[in-house]
Write a structure and sequence with these properties.
Ferritin, mainly alpha, about 300 residues, elongated, 9 helices
Length: about 300
């Protein structure tokens, strides 16, 4: 009886501690929301200034910060609501298994704690809930497994991914309408075109190995076609040998002609080969045509 009472008192003590942590988390949320609200206001002011200056492409980039800060504000609001649920339904935490009425809230709080490192009270709540319902239950929520019961909206609000272009355009149009600025950013906006170009470049990089392979195939096909042409030129081995013999005979005749031409040129340039001219041999010609020595 004493052990049961101690266990019951210990359980009640843990529940009381969890309720106090939930209350402290709600107070922390008020501070964090004020900080995020200031950041969101600054980012929105930057967007308004860029729109007034006509830098709509830069405003489209800057509006991403507005969206992220607003998402965190919404997430903190949801976390506060789930903390209120823990306080109101604390009696249901006495069960060993998580009550269906609390599954979404507890799973969402555990998931949010894994994404909010600046929230110490929420981290302690996660530890207590993990100790109460087991690591498998906590891992199911953190890893977003099937039937984890985490609210999809809080998953979207705490996502680290860049907001979609459609969302950025929608928020930017809302801000522009408030200050009376007409947007010209549509589907053909420079920023959008740049993003599409980036996607195209990535696709081209993915296809480059395939193009290289195709180029190698083309070269091999060209080599193959040349060899086929060579085979088609000669019908059989005899024809190929005859053609080779003719080519060799033509080359030999050309070589002989080159030698004869070289000899002929050398005779024309050498005066001593045939005795040279009469004057060069030391004789003179008489009137009757006879040759007399020259002294």
């Amino acid at each position: 009886m004493g052990r049961k009472l101690d266990a019951l008192l210990g359980r009640n003590s843990n529940i009381s501690k969890l309720k106090n942590l939930a209350k402290m988390a709600i107070s922390r949320i008020s501070i964090l929301k004020n900080q995020r609200q200031v950041r969101c206001s600054h980012a929105q002011s930057d967007v308004i200034e860029l729109l007034k200056l006509g830098h709509q492409e830069r405003a489209l980039l800057r509006v991403e910060h507005v969206i992220k800060e607003q998402n965190m504000l919404d997430a903190f609001g949801m976390i506060g609501n789930y903390c209120d649920l823990l306080i109101e339904r604390a009696v249901l935490l006495e069960n060993k298994e998580c009550h269906d009425e609390l599954k979404e809230g507890i799973s969402s709080l555990i998931f949010a704690a894994s994404r909010c490192g600046e929230f110490p009270e929420l981290q302690k709540i996660r530890q207590m809930l993990t100790s109460r319902f087991g690591k498998d239950f906590a891992n199911c929520a953190v890893e977003l497994r099937n039937k984890c019961r985490v609210n999809p909206k809080i998953v979207q609000k705490l996502s680290a991914r860049q907001p979609h272009l459609e969302i950025r355009l929608k928020v930017l149009k809302g801000i522009a309408s408030e200050i009376g600025v007409t947007l010209y950013l549509e589907e053909d906006a420079p920023v959008i075109a740049a993003e599409e170009k980036l996607d195209v470049n990535q696709k081209q990089k993915q296809l480059e190995p395939k193009k290289s392979a195709n180029l190698e195939e083309i070269i091999e096909d060209e080599k193959l076609s040349e060899s086929v042409k060579a085979r088609k030129k000669y019908r059989d081995a005899a024809a190929a040998a005859q053609e080779a013999f003719k080519a060799a005979e033509y080359a030999a005749a050309a070589a002989r002609a080159a030698v004869e031409l070289s000899r002929s040129e050398s005779r024309d340039n050498d005066p001593d080969e045939y005795g040279g001219s009469a004057h060069q041999q030391g004789t003179i010609s008489d009137s009757d045509g006879s040759m007399t020595p020259k002294f």
